[in-house]
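Researcher:
Attend to token order:
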Amino acid sequence: MPSETCDVVVLLSGSGSNLQALIDSTRAGDSPVRIRAVISNRADAYGLQRARDAGIDTVVLDHKAFDGREAFDQALIERIDAFSPQLVVLAGFMRILSAGFVRHYEGRLLNIHPSLLPKYKGLHTHQRALEAGDHEHGCSVHFVTEELDGGPLVVQAVIPVAADDTPESLAQRVHAQEHQIYPLAVRWFAEGRLRLEEHGALLDGQTLAASGHLIRP
């Protein structure tokens, strides 16, 4: 094990397949990543079970129990900071975060999105890519800023769109790439290779292109 570990808190609302990919990647003997806790706004999120199976602390914080987004986000900050993480990872966390939350974790908050940003921010990305007749699709890891799905890009995986693709088949192939590039980006951060500066994301001291680091599997 490396002498320095990077403590990570993961936020999720659903099945947690990206969490599982992160857990699996940390089991490599040389991983600097330590997942301290998984927090969900849904008690029935299967990702919580994945965390428990891996011996990771879990927290449920029901957003419906709070009077508004800011109150929920403040409580969420308190739960996260109790674990003193260096990095917070959004893995299918279906909440739009307040500006105050995003500013609190500026430079240490990552998200993954199922499109080649800046295309198709928001939902239904696979359907939208097909309707647009795109020849390529994929997924993006980015630093989170106050602009929804708009922060500096870290890494993108690009896959071809087949003539017979459906939203479901496209989603399946995109998910497979998410499970590759998210652990990669988290490891870069944990190793001190990736950081956010005023002018964008830097990898190994070099400013990343607007599209981030491109991977074509």
About this structure: The mean pLDDT is 96. The chain has six helices and eleven strands. The chain has two domains: 1-105, 112-216. The longest strand covers residues 33-40.
